[in-house]
Amino acid sequence: MSNFPITNTNKVRRMPKRGHYDRATVYGIIDEALVCHVAFVIDGMPTVIPTLHARRDDELLLHGARTSRMLQHVAAGNPMSVAITLLDGIVLARSVFHHSMNYRSVVLHGTGRLVESTEEKVAALEAFAEHVARGRWVDARQPSRKELKATSVIALPIEVAAAKVRTGPPLDEDEDYALPIWAGVLPLSLRAGNAIPDPRLDSDITVPAYVRKYRRLGS
Amino acid sequence: MSNFPITNTNKVRRMPKRGHYDRATVYGIIDEALVCHVAFVIDGMPTVIPTLHARRDDELLLHGARTSRMLQHVAAGNPMSVAITLLDGIVLARSVFHHSMNYRSVVLHGTGRLVESTEEKVAALEAFAEHVARGRWVDARQPSRKELKATSVIALPIEVAAAKVRTGPPLDEDEDYALPIWAGVLPLSLRAGNAIPDPRLDSDITVPAYVRKYRRLGS
Q1: Would residue B218 count as lying in a domain?
Q2: How far is residue B46's CA from residue B32's CA, in Å, rounded to a whole number?
Q3: DSSP assignment, residue B182?
Q4: Coil, helix or strand for A85?
Q5: Is residue B163 part of a domain?
């Protein structure tokens, strides 16, 4: 897959060696993460909120109630920034100074568009359902016309994009390696526990395999 | 602990029932989460980036290289917004429409100040180390004067703050409860795996208990 052009906006400034601009890395992070953080500006003031996302081809999708202030604001063509972050580990160095995190993150900038056609909206809702739990779309009750109307979908082209990735052990100052201090990485991952059936669920209905054996991509 | 005043800025608009304005809820989320997402505005354009945070009393602390664009920008008194998000589960409803997430999130707004005194800076670095792994500060090699100089710390008063929390089973339309569709919650949590020693670590040095038995608060 091709690379994103490096511009003043998406260039990784701090720790440039951690920057990645290839679609495979960026899309892998977007697809594995469940939620993103969306930043927008109203009256010069920034706001950032968490929300579920999905990806369809080269667009990041956001959705929510038609009345959502954030969705209305970005649907009006106002600039937005989106960050998607996966935590992979705590990096415990010998020195406090060199402590770090292993992580994979993506930052996007751009302008969203409101998805208007019913067909594209349904495809987007399928992408959200499948992003959350692959296999869920066909099992669940499909959106009604009323529900579709109540939902807004925004598509943000994934164009101004960069990933930032840290992996591997701590990097300490040469003279610190002799110190009698434990150093290493404590891996972290978002894991699923045992499914909790809805108290109102008919006990004859068994847990689907995509819930029972749930895993995020790549995790 | 007291409540934060509800203003136009921190009021939870979407799903107001999920809003919480008490310090215990807000601080519990801040203290459990490892990272936050910081939004700021440069030339009218929003940017959001992930970074580690810590809390000292009623301030959120951010830190990084003195040369960090984000830290320099917010140290100059520009407004910022910070979101902190914990994912607790995937809520699988019978209808696609009522799918949701269980989560606990905090959104803050305000203006940071650069921490200038050495004493306060060291206390902040202790807070970061202890936020990441309680017990780490006394074990690790303390910051040198040079390292302290190379690090900026920003303190954001936790004043304009709100938490948003969803818990519990899916809520479906009355007529959907009869559908033969599995519904429930798949719990999610950030878990630590087995510590990976630095390849350069002396094998006589054992893993500290706070790494071996690592847990986030409340998890």
Answers
A1: no
A2: 27
A3: -
A4: strand
A5: yes
The answer to whether A44 contacts B44, with C-beta atoms less than 8 Å apart, is yes
Q: Where does the pLDDT of residue B2 fall: very low under 50, low under 70, confident under 90, or very high at 90 and above?
A: confident
Interface of B with A in 124-153 (CB under 8 A): 125, 128-129, 132-133, 136-137, 139-144, 147, 150-151
B-chain residues near A72 (CB < 8 A): none
Most A CBs within 10 Å, among B37, B128, B137, B206, to test the A interface: B37
The CA distance from B167 to B182, in Å, is 18
- CB-based contact B41 A40, cutoff 8 Å: no
pLDDT of residue A219: 45
Lowest mean pLDDT among A10-14, B186-190, B195-199: A10-14
Nearest to A62 by CA among A23, A106, A115, A9: A115
| CATH at residue B79 | 2.30.110.10
Chain B residue at shortest CA distance from A14: B68
Q: Which residue of B has its CA nearest to A126?
A: B96
pTM equals: 0.96
Residue B177 lies in a domain: no
* A179 assigned to some structural domain: no
What per-residue confidence (pLDDT) applies to A175? 97
What is the ipTM, given to two decimal places?
0.96
Query: Residue A86's domain spans which residues?
Result: 16-171+186-212
Cβ-based contacts of A140 with chain B (< 8 Å): 92-96, 99, 181
Condensed to tens digits (0 to 9), the pLDDT of residues B82-130 reads 999 999 999 999 999 999 999 999 999 999 999 999 999 999 999 999 9
Q: How many domains does chain B have?
A: 1
Please give the C-alpha separations between residue B67 and each of A14, A125, A194, B72, B117, in angstroms, as whole numbers: 8, 42, 45, 7, 18
**CA pair distance A23, B184, nearest whole angstrom:** 35
Cβ separation of A99 and B34 shorter than 8 Å?
no
Q: Which residues of B touch A97 (CB under 8 A)?
A: 143-144, 147, 150-151
How many other CB atoms sit within 10 Å of the CB of residue B199? 8
Least Cα separation, residue A157 to chain B (angstroms): 16
